[in-house]
Structure formats: structure tokens, C-alpha cells
């Protein structure tokens, strides 16, 4: 079957679907499925805009609300993950996934589904070490910290995905897996985006959590976005035994949704001809959710997932074939995801703007039904109960959060990953600055132009086959000290830690705010990833 893959959509659904229609008219190509790798921006109204962690001038309604209201319907089944430019209050309603509009499905904080026998997984958000070990405690109305931490990847989601044993065909993440740039045309990438060089050379660009998942899941395809540049790589995985068949992953990062940009690619995927056309639950994933339900946390208290270190009675939460069979029996062997989309918020009306509307914490019936069916914790319901009961463990403590923001880990225990991809001072510390000059150039290892004038050829993008050496593998077992030693040997200064917004002047490069000249500032990524092309260099 044909699968279309898009990069950062930024709410421009009309533009994305119009591009598909143009491909059909010119090349008679129409996908069976569309995947979007984050920054989808499912914005329904003005309150949703207030829950996006972007400067006010970039808060545009775009066109998703027309699909939410039913004015339009997605012409192709669309499955997406969250990024760091999202209406977090909307996506938070569906922590286990669900329909955000007819024919548009969100995978949740992490999720796995099936379509025509193809197994599709994904993890939403971006990696930040200071939030990685916390629970999902945020709820609207957000403050300056929680509006960002709401979309930060948590260790519980990575842990769940690592319990999977059956092969994954396609996996999506918003930020790139760390080290993946070593398996494609790295020099061309650095030629186009020279300000990535220090992070690439110190092996700190990208998400270590995603890298760990890449090593564990070994999917056939891995798609990402976030950096607004097209890049292809081919990774040959090492085998654990002589009996194990070698596996390889084709990686592709897509550009953002703009005219004349390579933001969309169509590929051919082997599928099960006997499978139906409906999106389906994945039985193993449901079984894993049930097995790990006791680990779900709704507090901001940091903690590590169980591991085989002598401190936990149980650390393996992978499921048996019997557990998978029980899920199938629960569903009467009908894995079809119900089309139970429900409006949970008023839709934007251009004729009646509501600029002062405040976001509220909403419990989505889809999540209630899903949790009740499979006996899972309804995260939003638990958060709501904690709010009603008054200050307590589930409540947000702003003073405590501000103290934690000054460190890359918790006070009690260091983060299990060594570095935090925070930027320098900017309005939004999670943003990256991308020089858009020359951004149309394809950074894959072939000269493919997947524009409407040229039929896309994905297979030609992967000619550079390499095996990741053990020294580059990032895992939760990596010690903080040992990794820092490697960086020091490479002559790389330790990355400047993230500061709270109130302490950060609005400048990209400069001296240390604390007067410590021994800490080297590096030209890093700032908020202009989200800007229009003519503002990218000045934001």
C-alpha cells in the first residue's frame, strides 16, 4: 500500500491535503494512509491557541477547526503524533490516543496501531531530561512551565514501548533519535545547517530516549520531523546472536509544510491484502498498557522505571502470548478502533471571535470508554480528582517546579540521560533556530525531488549502510559521569543548563548571565523554527 509521510504540519491541513490531490492529478498517485510526525496543531478555538508554547504572534488558527467541526473531512485516513507546537490541552484529553476529528487519529503520548496489517508505533513530544522522570501531572490552565513540560517525553512511555517484542513496521518520533545523523549524508547536513555541527560532533543532537527505542524496536522505517530539514539515513542493526536475522532501519526526516518544500513523501509498504481498511488496535500494545498500568504516575515527583538492578522485584513487563490472546478475547477478535469521535469544545467561529476565553481541563469520553474497557487508569480523571481534593501530591507546585528547572535532573537522583537539549536564551527554550536559506535542498543521499512535478522515490534515498558501534548506543544504563568524560576527552564544553524564562534575556548569543566566563555559550537553536521564512533569520 502507499503511505504518505509528512513533516511538521503546523495546522495547515488544507495545504497538506491539497498537495496530495495535486499529486493525484499529475501522477495518478493517492495514498492509503497519511502519517504526520508532529507539530500537527489540532487547534479548535482561541482557548487552544493559548495552550501552544509559541510567541503570541505565531498563534494562528490555521485550518484544523474546519475538520473538527465537520465542515470538512480528511480525504485520507490520517495518523499523527504530537510535537512541541501543539494545543496541549486538546491532545491531553487523549493520553492513550483517539480521534481528534473524523478520519484523523492521534496516537497519544505513545501508541501502536495497525492498518492493513502494518504495525505503526509512535511517541509524542520532545525530550527534556529535567521532566523525563516525572508523571503526567500537567493540566490546563497552564503556567509558563507546564505549557512546555506538557509535551515533554516521559520515561513511562519509553518503558512501555520497550516491552514490545513483536516487530514494528513503522515508528514515528518528533525529534530525531540521537546519533542517527552518523548514518546518512552528515557532511551535507552540516553544510546546510552549520549550527548543528557542535551538537553533531559531540553526539548531543537529538533525543537519547528515541535512540534507545530505535536500538530496541529496530523498526523497518522510522520517520521524524522537528528540525525542518529533509534527511535520510540507513542503519544496519547489530544482532544479539548468530541465529538472529540482521535488521535495518530506513530513517527519514521531513521538512515543514511550506510551498516548494519537501515536507511530504510517499512510499510503498508491504501489507496484508486480506486485512480490512479500518484502523485497528494492536493487541500486544493493549496487553502492555494493562501490564504497566500500576506504573502510571500523575505527580511531578521524579522516579525511575523498574530495572534489573536489585532494587525491584519485577522489571520485565513484556507480555506473554496468553496475555495477548486474552486481549483478543476481550475484543471478540474485533480489533477495529471504534469511530467514536466526540466534540468536547466549542469550535472557532470567524464571525464571533472569543479572544478572552480560558482553557479548561476536559475529560474526553473516548478516553473514559477506552480506560473502562481495558481496566486502565484514566489519567485526566485522576488529575481532576486531585484538583477537587485540594493541594496534595497531584497538585502543581510552582515554586518547586522553578527550582527543578535550574537543573537537568532531580535533586534526589541524577537524570538517567546525561544532557539536556535546551537552547540558549530565547522566548521558548524548546525551540530551534533554522536558517532557511537553501532549505529546499534534499539532504537524502540521492537526488530525489518529491515535489508534485516529480514522482517520489523513497527507496533510492538509502544507499549509505552502516552499523552503529557500541560506543554510540545510548541507553538508560549509561552513567552520567562516563558520558561526560567522553565529551571532555573530545574537547567539548559542557552544555549550558536551561534557565527559567524570568532569568533569560531575549538574545541568542552572549556572555554568561551569572558572570561565569568559564562556561562557553554556543550558538544553538531558538524559537524561530516556527517563524515564517522571511522571519527565520531575525527572530
TrEMBL record:
Pfam families: DBR1 (PF05011), Metallophos (PF00149). Keywords: Hydrolase, Iron, Manganese, Metal-binding, mRNA processing, Nucleus, Zinc. GO terms for molecular function: metal ion binding; RNA lariat debranching enzyme activity. Residues 235-380 form the Lariat debranching enzyme C-terminal domain. Its main location: nucleus. One of its GO terms (cellular component) is nucleus. Residues 396-406, 432-443 have a biased composition (Acidic residues). Its cofactor is Mn(2+); Zn(2+); Fe(2+). InterPro entries: Calcineurin-like_PHP, DBR1_C, Dbr1_N, Metallo-depent_PP-like. Residues 386-395, 486-506 have a biased composition (Basic and acidic residues). The keyword Manganese applies. Belongs to the lariat debranching enzyme family. This is DBR1 enzyme. It comes from Podargus strigoides (Tawny frogmouth).
Amino acid at each position: 500500500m502507499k503511505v504518505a509521510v509528512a513533516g511538521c504540519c503546523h495546522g495547515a491541513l488544507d495545504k497538506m491535503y491539497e498537495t496530495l490531490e495535486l499529486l493525484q492529478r499529475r501522477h495518478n498517485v493517492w495514498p492509503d494512509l497519511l502519517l504526520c510526525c508532529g507539530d500537527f496543531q489540532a487547534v479548535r478555538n482561541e482557548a487552544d491557541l493559548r495552550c501552544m508554547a509559541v510567541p503570541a504572534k505565531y498563534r494562528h488558527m490555521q485550518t484544523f477547526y474546519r475538520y473538527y467541526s465537520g465542515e470538512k473531512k480528511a480525504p485520507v485516513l490520517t495518523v499523527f503524533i504530537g510535537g512541541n507546537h501543539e494545543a496541549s490541552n486538546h491532545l491531553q484529553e487523549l493520553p492513550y490516543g483517539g480521534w481528534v476529528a473524523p478520519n484523523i487519529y492521534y496516537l497519544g503520548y505513545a501508541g501502536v496501531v495497525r492498518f492493513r496489517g502494518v504495525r505503526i508505533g509512535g511517541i509524542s513530544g520532545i525530550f527534556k531530561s529535567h521532566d523525563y522522570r516525572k508523571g503526567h501531572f500537567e493540566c490546563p490552565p497552564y503556567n509558563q512551565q507546564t505549557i512546555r513540560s506538557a509535551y515533554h517525553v516521559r520515561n513511562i512511555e519509553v518503558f512501555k514501548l520497550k516491552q514490545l517484542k513483536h516487530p514494528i513496521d513503522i515508528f514515528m518520533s518528533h525529534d530525531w533519535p540521537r546519533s542517527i545523523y552518523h548514518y546518512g549524508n552528515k557532511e551535507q547536513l552540516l553544510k546546510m545547517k552549520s549550527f548543528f555541527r557542535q551538537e553533531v560532533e559531540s553526539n548531543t543532537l537529538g533525543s537519547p530516549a528515541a535512540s534507545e527505542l530505535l536500538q530496541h524496536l529496530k523498526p523497518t522505517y522510522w520517520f521524524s520531523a522537528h528540525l525542518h530539514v529533509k534527511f535520510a539515513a540507513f542503519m544496519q542493526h547489530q544482532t544479539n546472536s548468530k541465529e538472529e536475522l540482521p535488521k535495518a532501519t530506513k530513517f527519514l526526516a521531513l521538512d515543514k509544510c511550506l510551498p516548494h518544500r519537501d515536507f511530504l513523501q510517499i512510499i510503498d509498504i508491504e501489507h496484508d491484502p486480506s486485512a480490512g481498511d479500518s484502523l485497528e488496535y494492536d493487541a500486544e500494545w493493549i496487553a502492555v498498557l494493562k501490564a504497566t498500568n500500576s506504573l502510571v504516575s500523575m505527580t511531578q515527583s521524579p522516579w525511575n522505571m523498574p530495572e534489573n538492578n536489585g532494587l525491584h522485584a519485577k522489571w520485565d513487563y513484556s507480555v506473554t502470548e496468553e496475555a495477548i490472546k486474552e486481549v483478543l478475547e476481550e475484543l471478540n477478535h474485533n480489533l477495529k478502533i471504534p469511530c467514536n469521535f466526540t466534540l468536547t469544545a466549542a469550535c472557532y467561529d470567524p464571525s464571533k471571535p472569543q479572544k478572552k476565553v480560558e482553557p479548561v481541563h476536559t475529560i474526553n469520553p473516548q478516553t473514559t470508554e477506552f480506560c473502562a474497557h481495558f481496566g486502565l487508569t484514566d489519567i485526566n480523571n485522576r488529575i481532576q480528582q486531585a484538583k477537587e481534593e485540594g493541594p496534595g501530591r497531584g497538585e502543581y507546585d510552582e515554586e518547586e517546579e522553578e527550582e527543578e528547572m535550574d537543573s537537568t535532573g532531580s535533586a534526589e537522583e541524577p537524570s538517567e540521560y546525561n544532557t539536556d537539549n535546551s537552547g540558549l536564551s530565547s522566548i521558548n527554550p524548546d525551540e530551534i533556530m533554522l536558517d532557511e536559506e537553501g532549505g529546499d535542498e534534499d539532504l537524502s543521499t540521492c537526488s530525489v525531488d518529491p515535489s508534485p512535478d516529480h514522482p517520489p522515490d523513497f527507496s533510492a534515498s538509502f544507499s549509505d549502510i552502516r552499523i552503529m558501534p557500541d560506543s554510540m548506543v545510548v541507553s538508560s544504563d549509561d552513567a552520567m559521569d562516563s558520558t561526560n568524560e567522553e565529551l571532555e576527552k573530545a574537547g567539548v564544553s559542557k552544555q549550558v543548563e536551561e534557565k527559567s524564562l524570568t532569568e533569560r534575556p531575549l538574545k541568542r548569543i552572549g556572555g554568561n548571565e551569572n558572570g561565569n566566563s568559564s562556561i562557553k555559550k554556543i550558538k544553538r537553536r531558538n524559537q524561530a523554527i516556527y517563524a515564517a521564512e522571511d522571519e527565520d533569520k531575525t527572530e
